[in-house]
Design brief:
Strand content: 5-15%
Shape: globular
Order of helices and strands: EHEHHEHEHHEHH
Largest sheet: 5 strands, parallel
Number of helices: 8
Strand order of the largest sheet: 2-3-1-4-5
Number of strands: 5
């Protein structure tokens, strides 16, 4: 088991890169841990739910922000109870700012799963539950422009889930974000 339970982990990347699978594997190695899948947090809205990118954009964007806010609160609550939270979400600068605001007094490790966009689209085709990578492939460019230089970036195109988590474990210090001033 890893001794990296001192922080909240934020696993990000475009849809289809394997955030959920990697997050679950990382959580399994951390002992007392909790996987917070932000898509499920957002889907707690039953009436009035808008999927990301759905019109009106101001409302769907507000729901994205609400999901990040609540995921951050949930992560803090799990950490207070002795669990290492692993949050999986598509995070660009505005969402990262929300996480950092809510988790201002906590250590946060950011891992960006960043294989070439074609790899994400191919992986997405193999999923049973949803197919959205093609629709959100444009986020790859935004992610690279907005987030480059933050956290640990991994091209996971040639790596298995186990190999990816092995690299995350070895390079965890690179994932640590500077404290919020």
């Amino acid at each position: 088991m890893l001794a990296l339970a001192d922080s909240i982990w934020l696993i990000t990347g475009i849809p289809g890169v394997g955030k959920t699978t990697v997050s679950r594997e990382l959580a399994a190695r951390l002992g007392a841990s909790a996987h917070i899948e932000v898509d499920l947090v957002r889907e707690m809205v039953v009436s009035g739910y808008l999927a990301p990118g759905q019109e009106p954009l101001a409302v769907s964007d507000a729901q994205l922000d609400l999901g990040a806010h609540n995921a951050a609160l949930l992560a803090g609550s799990f950490m207070d109870a002795g669990f290492t939270p692993i949050v999986d979400d598509v995070v660009l600068r505005p969402r990262l700012a929300r996480y950092r605001e809510v988790l201002a007094h906590r250590l946060v490790r950011l891992v960006v799963l960043a294989p070439p966009v074609g790899v994400a689209v191919d992986r997405d085709r193999g999923r049973v539950e949803k197919h959205v990578a093609g629709r959100f492939a444009y986020l790859d460019r935004e992610l690279r422009e907005q987030m480059l230089g933050l956290g640990l970036w991994l091209d996971t195109s040639g790596a298995s889930v186990v190999e990816t988590v092995d690299v995350i474990s070895r390079r965890a210090d690179e994932a640590l974000l500077a404290p919020v001033p």
